[in-house]
Structures are given as structure tokens and as C-alpha cells.
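User: Fold both of these, please.

Assistant: Here is the first one.
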Amino acid sequence: MDDGEGGRGTLNFDEKNFLFEWLVENNKTLTRKNKELLVENLKLRSRAEELEKINFVDPTTGLCNRWYLQPRLEEEFSRARRSGSSLSCLFIDIDDFKACNGRFGHFIGDKVLRDTALLLRAQCRKEDVLVRFGGDEFVILLGSSGQKAARTAAERIRSRLHGHRFTCGGQEISLTVSIGVSTLKKADVASSRDPWELVWTADGAMHVARQKGPGQIHRLDCQGQRDKPTESESAAS
């Protein structure tokens, strides 16, 4: 390195060439490491999506399961509070499904569940949330829907399922469903203590519908202030 004016050093050709080559190699190394980090990040993201799918998707029907309901309930309640709209829920139970399983076996029973899931999905709007709650029970969250819209949806679903012929062990049978309907009016959304009130109220309504006989619909309104019912209250419903 030579001294320039004022004692400032300047790089000769070899030093400049070395520095240039070093910068190029260093940049290659950084680029390679960035690619490796990107690949690793994509692998982790893919794995996270796989785990999320395992946690949230029901393997029998392909629908989301009840664990998916928690975050979606919170999202729907937040949206309803912001927009000042009502929320409704349908709780659907296949009547005498245990008898179907006992007569035709669990493989046919699983097929009935898959067929039911497809029929329900076809009756839902894009913004509705459909999940398999467990066993032969399904839940549909109806955003921005009041009592009339929820009742209309329940009637449409009941009619569609009752008119369907399920193939069971080489035979065609018809099944009915009991549907519980709950609505949280827009005036009560903000005061609701627990988003799950919408679901367990619909569950209670479904049990009342079953007591009336197969293929019935019953509606109960949420109060927007009650805590989750005790076991004795649930049994009474």
C-alpha cells in the first residue's frame, strides 16, 4: 500500500483485486447461507402446516374439527362486535346413527358421515364455518345471521338431508337430523361472557328437538350474559 497526499494510503492493483475477490466470495457464502435458511424455513412452515392440518382436520369427513372452532368463534365474535351484527349457530345431530352403525357396521357409518359432510358443505355459504363436532354431530356458525336467516338455513338443511338416499350395505335408506338453532342478537354480542355460549345453547336446543321426535328443529336465544351452564342444567336441557 502506497502513501498518497496527506499521508492517506491507496490500494495497489493486487490489493484491490484481492479485496474484490474476497467480497465476491463472501457474497457467495452469504447467498448460500440465505438459501439454506430459506429452505429450512420452508421445511418448518410445511411441517407446521402439516401439524395444523392434523390438529384441525377430521380424518373421517375431511371437515375441520371442534378444535378449529375455538379460534373461529373468537374471530366471528370480534367481527360481529365491529360490525354490530348478529350471530347464529346450528347444532346438527343424525337421528338413530348408532342404529345405523349397529346394523351396517362402522365402515358404512363412516361413509354416511362423509356423505352428510358433503351435503352440509353444499348448503353452507362461503363465509359459514362448518365443523364435525364429534360422533354424528356437526356445527355450523352463521356470521351476520339473525333468527330468521338461521331458521331458514336449518329448514333448508333438514329438507335436503331428509330427501337424500344414503347407500348402506347395498341398500338405500333415508335418515333424519335433529337441529338446534341459537342466535345471539347484535345487542347482546358485546355483553356475552363466553363465545361458546352460542354453541352450547344450540346444543341444548338440539337436545330439545330430539325429545320432540326425529327430524325436528328447535330454537333457543342466547342471553349474552350467562356463564356456561352447570352439569345439572345441561342434563335438564
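And the second sequence with its predicted structure:
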Amino acid sequence: MGIVLVGLYVACELIANVTASKPVQLGGIVVPAAIFIYAITFTLIDLINESFGKRGARKVILAAFLANLLLAAYAHLAVALPAAPFYTGQVAFAGVLGSAPRIVFASLAAYLISSFIDAELFALWKARVHGPRWLRVLVSNVVSTGIDSVAFISLAFYGVMPTGGLIRGQYVVKMAITLISLPLIYLVRSTRQRGEPLFDNPTRRGQGNP
């Protein structure tokens, strides 16, 4: 189950990066189309943290970050390559995959900052405060999604368009999706308790993470 969570997490991160360039309107707020699947990643990384511990969560975050860098680099290469004479979709292709460098940088920077904060806060709450599993997921997501919204919108759009409304809209939608996804935490049993390593040497099996 743990490896399935890792695969879903990385897939959601990549899908979010591809779909972020389209803004959608929900009632009176405008948010990137990626927000619906991206918001789930905060719960997924908490589940990975629950299963593999803070060290495992850090490794998954770095792996997803590198995957996003590879996606961004190859997408830019694909856009830059000369199109075949009969291909008529170059403008649309570039519009979808050729995100501005500032937006790509903002997305990756906000992701890295907020994901590490989420993993640290979740692990700290689990070790020091205890309490129900759903509460530590909710607390870590309240903080990390707020940081992610502020970091991404500020880095991507400051000086270009008003950022206050975009930040509020992103945060509200992310928290709504977080609340909906909370029941998922009870579908996952901790694989750490079964001694399953994540990217670790088998000789370290059963040893706790710092």
C-alpha cells in the first residue's frame, strides 16, 4: 500500500504541474485547474509520513521534486523542437506545456517549501502531541497549504496581478479538498509497523527514523 501512495503522490504532483496553466472560476474565485488534484498531495504526503516516517517522506518529496524538474525541462525542450510541417497544434502545445519560467519556478519552490514544512509538522505533532490521526493531518495541512498558497501566488504573480484574492481562493479550495480527503487516512495501515523500508538498506529494517 505504501508504494501505491508514493506512486499516486508523484503522479498527482506531475499532473498538477501540467494543468496549472489553466485558470478556472468557481463562484467568485479564480484558481488554477491544478488545485483540485494538488490539494490531495498534502494528505498523501501525510499518509506516506504515517507509513514510512519523516525520513521516507523527505525522500519522496525530493523524488517528486526531481520528477517535476525533469517534466519542466523536457516540456520546454519539446516546445522548442521544430514541429513537423503538417503539425498545426504548435501554438496550443506551447500554451499548455510551455509555462513561463517564473511560474515553473514558483510552483517548484512553493512545493518544496510547503511539503517539507508539512512533513516536519506532521512528524512533530505525531511525536509530541499525539491525538487522533485525522487531527495531525488537518493541523499540518492548515499550515502547509497556507504557506504553499502564499509562496506560489506571490512568486508567480506579484507585480503582475492582484495576489490577495488569488491566495484566499487557493487556500479555501485546498482546505475544502483536505477536509473531503481526511477519511483516506483510515484506509492506510502503517507499513512502518510491519518493518517495510522505503529506499533504505534492508539491514536497517526495523530501525526507527530520527
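The two ends are 23 Å apart (CA to CA).
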